[in-house]
């Protein structure tokens, strides 16, 4: 029987508990034994260190908790060979020869060294009699899987680490709140965020929160008098109407000579040169505390399950790997390569080799930095008279999605900065039909980055019959040369209808670009839509509270979520909340399944279970409705549990967009503008939708779009997330299948 050790080490990160839960349950489900090593490496080095065999129930109820229930610590003894020599027999006492390490690069460096030394340490211990020949036999190879758990997101090999998204939530929420008080007093705020060697949190929070200036370690200001440049930009912002100034400073920020730039120094500069009141807010450990976001819960769960798969696979026996996220896909990478590249970045920063640092950070980081440089400008670059820009219309269509305002703001500011004229079209295609078009300037979208709803309006109207003629007239009258359509299924359908009417209306023979913005996440040409992450966070916030209510009363809740005929919200929220059952339109519901589900719940409550949650997609089945399922559960579960229902409704669409949706929306628009400019160089510019596919931003031509769409169910023919269905079943079981 395989015996796996799991530990959390270094600084804690939200999502570590979800990863531990996944490793334990996936391991047990596959017939392995899983041991928690408490307090990091200290648990395997110190005499009173705790190594505990885990059961299925030991990790119940920890998914939504911050921190790490098995503890973490930094262990000096483990850094020495003698310490590692002490650790090996303690592991072998339990038969452990596979480790899952959840931590940052320091923790994973320790794992790498232990992996390299393991064979010789085992031989030395066997020769000295400290372990028996039986303990040594067959265990001269150590399998190691690293899961990067660090809010700094400073390790090479993964787009984002466990905890970073939650930290962005903390920062963005704080900056949103600070901005309101700053604007009230016309005050400048300097916000310091974590990141000694990596500016990820500072850079991404600058995009998500609409900061006016940002300082990161990887790319210091390229001027000696950077202070003058910063103050000039902020002063111009005041002149054109901004009432606040937000400067985000990474704790590792430096100038181009390597001198540290502190948040206090930035405050002094602002007060002295601008003559205005400036304050410093150091967010500190609030960034790493609290319940993990839905992204971190699901990322950690996916990584934890894959870690067990890697350990149990014969081809990776004795290997040391890191599981990283690329786009929306998990990849296995050599641990030594990830550590080597991470150290290379730190060395380059230390040596002031900033071009090299940016290269190592990758294309996405570089593009985000360039985007920030544009968005923090007080005013756009002057247009190049030799490169006349386009007149681009931008509209929202379909149901409202959090992040629509972020996308319109990005289109306006990035488009104007590239020399284009942006025309806001109010109230979707109905507004385009009625001629509700107005030119938008730089300040017309000021403050929109974090506002929910849709400031230029949206509706579900799709063009038909005489609408096409009226729309063609509006396009001609306003000389619209390209159209950006932001929205969901109705938006894509309407854009395709315009595209198909080109033979009747030459005005439609312009590039039309669709951008995914719908909480349902039911669109072709993209794996993720803007708004879905916000909706999922709204759902888990509600379900977490529901579970607290349920546990006090031995109760089962049946929760209904949106999604139309797409079960994305239902499945992903079930995965993130630990729901026992999820009902999807893709799978349907049968009475036999419902009866089996009730029996499983009854057995669970007989065995000491205190609460239960089932999540139903709003269109999972026309007969077995929310009311029906609640009534069935209540009737059959009498004497064991009570039942309540909750339809979450439009709270899923409301609220300000999450940092993930703000960043995704901004990056999609950036890619769309680049694609549009490339297409305008072609004899016949094409229309397309922009999306995130296979770890990269890609475009899908309108010619290919219909064959990807299931028009009957208003969802793509292939839904990538259904591959996670077996994982959700494993996590929801009351006990391991093995």
What does this entry look like structurally?
- The protein is α/β, with parallel strands linked by helices.
- The protein has four domains: 3-161 and 291-327, Rossmann fold, CATH 3.40.50; 164-287, Phosphofructokinase domain (Rossmann fold, 3-Layer(aba) Sandwich); 391-530 and 657-703, Rossmann fold; 532-655 and 724-732, Phosphofructokinase domain (Rossmann fold, 3-Layer(aba) Sandwich), CATH 3.40.50.460.
- The chain has a seven-stranded mixed sheet with strand order 3-2-1-4-5-10-11, sandwiched between helices.
- Helix 11 packs antiparallel against helix 12 (354-361), helix 14 (404-417) crosses helix 22 (659-679) and helix 18 crosses helix 19.
- The termini are close together.
Keywords:
738 residues, alpha/beta, Rossmann fold, 4 domains, 7-stranded mixed beta sheet
Summarize the structure.
With 738 residues, the chain is an alpha/beta fold. The chain is built from 24 helices and 24 strands. α4 crosses α11 (335-350), α14 packs across α22 and α15 (428-434) crosses α16 (466-477).
Mean pLDDT: 94
- CATH fold description of the largest domain: Rossmann fold
CATH architecture of the largest domain: 3-Layer(aba) Sandwich
User: What can be said about the biggest beta sheet?
Assistant: 7 strands, mixed
What level of helicity do the residues show?
A: 40-55%
List the domain count as a whole number: 4
Helix-strand makeup class: alpha/beta
User: In percent, how much strand structure appears in the residues?
Assistant: 15-25%
Task: Work out the radius of gyration.
Answer: 27 Å
What is the overall shape? Answer: globular
Number of strands: 24
Question: Tell me, what is the CATH class of the largest domain?
Answer: Alpha Beta
Low-confidence stretches: none
Largest beta sheet: what is the strand line-up? Answer: 3-2-1-4-5-10-11
The count of helical stretches stands at 24
Distance between the termini: 12 Å
């Amino acid at each position: 029987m395989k015996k796996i050790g799991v530990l959390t080490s270094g600084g804690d990160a939200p999502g570590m508990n979800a990863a531990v839960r996944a490793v334990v349950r996936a391991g047990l489900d596959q017939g392995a034994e899983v041991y928690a090593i408490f307090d990091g490496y200290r648990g395997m080095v110190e005499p009173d260190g705790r190594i505990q065999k885990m059961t299925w129930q030991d990790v119940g109820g920890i998914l939504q908790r911050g921190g790490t229930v098995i503890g973490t610590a930094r262990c000096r003894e483990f850094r020495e060979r003698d310490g590692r020599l002490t650790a090996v027999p303690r592991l072998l006492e339990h038969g452990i020869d596979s480790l899952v390490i959840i931590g940052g690069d320091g923790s994973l460096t320790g794992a790498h060294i232990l992996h390299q030394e393991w064979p010789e340490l085992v031989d030395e211990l066997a020769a000295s009699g400290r372990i028996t020949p039986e303990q040594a036999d067959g265990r001269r190879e150590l399998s190691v899987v690293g899961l990067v758990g660090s809010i700094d997101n400073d390790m090479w090999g993964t787009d984002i680490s466990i905890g970073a998204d939650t930290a962005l939530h903390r920062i963005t929420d704080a900056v949103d709140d600070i901005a309101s008080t700053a604007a009230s007093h016309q005050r400048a705020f300097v916000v310091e965020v974590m990141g000694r060697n990596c500016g990820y949190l500072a850079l991404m929070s600058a995009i998500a929160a609409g900061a006016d200036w940002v300082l990161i370690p990887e790319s210091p200001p390229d001027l000696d008098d950077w202070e003058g440049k910063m103050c000039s930009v902020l002063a111009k912002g005041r002149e054109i109407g901004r009432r606040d100034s937000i400067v985000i400073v990474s704790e590792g920020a430096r100038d181009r000579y390597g001198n540290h730039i502190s948040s206090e120094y930035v405050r002094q500069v602002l007060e002295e040169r601008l003559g205005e009141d400036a304050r410093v807010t150091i967010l500190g450990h609030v960034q790493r505390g609290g319940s993990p976001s839905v992204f971190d819960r699901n990322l950690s769960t996916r990584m934890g399950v894959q870690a067990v798969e890697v350990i149990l696979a014969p081809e990776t026996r004795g290997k040391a790997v890191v599981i990283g996220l690329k786009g929306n896909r998990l990849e296995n990478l050599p641990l030594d390569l990830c550590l080597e590249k991470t150290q290379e970045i730190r060395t380059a920063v230390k040596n002031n080799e900033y071009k090299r640092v940016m290269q190592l950070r990758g294309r996405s980081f570089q593009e985000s930095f360039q985007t920030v440089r544009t968005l923090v400008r007080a005013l756009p670059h002057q247009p190049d008279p030799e490169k006349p820009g386009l007149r681009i219309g931008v509209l929202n269509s379909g149901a409202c999605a959090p992040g629509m305002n972020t996308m319109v703001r990005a289109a306006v500011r990035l488009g104007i900065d590239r020399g284009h004229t942006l025309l806001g079209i109010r109230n979707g295609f109905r507004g385009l039909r009625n001629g509700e078009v107005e030119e938008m300037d730089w300040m017309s979208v000021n403050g929109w980055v974090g506002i929910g709803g849709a400031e230029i309006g949206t509706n579900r109207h799709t063009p038909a019959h005489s609408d096409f003629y009226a729309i063609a007239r509006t396009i001609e009258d306003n000389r619209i040369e390209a159209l950006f359509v932001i929205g969901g299924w109705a938006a894509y359908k309407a854009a395709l209808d315009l595209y198909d009417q080109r033979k009747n209306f030459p005005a439609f023979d312009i590039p039309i670009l669709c951008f995914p913005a719908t909480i349902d996440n039911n669109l072709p040409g993209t794996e993720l839509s803007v708004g879905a992450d916000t909706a999922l966070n709204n759902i888990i916030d509600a379900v977490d509270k529901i579970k607290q209510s349920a546990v006090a009363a031995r109760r089962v809740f049946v929760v209904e979520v949106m999604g139309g005929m797409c079960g994305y919200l239902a499945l992903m929220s079930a995965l993130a909340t630990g729901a026992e059952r999820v009902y999807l339109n893709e799978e349907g519901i049968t009475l036999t399944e419902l009866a089996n589900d009730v029996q499983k719940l009854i057995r669970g409550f007989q065995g000491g279970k205190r609460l239960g949650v089932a999540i139903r997609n709003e269109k999972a089945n026309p007969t077995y409705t929310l009311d029906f399922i609640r009534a069935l559960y209540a009737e059959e579960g009498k004497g064991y549990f009570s039942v309540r229902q909750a339809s979450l409704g439009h709270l899923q669409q409301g609220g300000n967009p999450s940092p993930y949706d703000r960043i995704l929306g901004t990056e999609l628009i950036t890619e769309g503008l680049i694609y549009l400019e490339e297409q305008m160089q072609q004899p016949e510019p094409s229309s397309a939708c922009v999306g995130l596919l296979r770890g990269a931003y890609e475009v899908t031509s309108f010619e290919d779009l219909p064959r990807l769409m299931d028009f009957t169910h208003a969802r793509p023919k292939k839904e990538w997330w259904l591959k996670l269905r077996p994982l959700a079943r494993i996590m929801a079981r009351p006990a391991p299948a093995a």
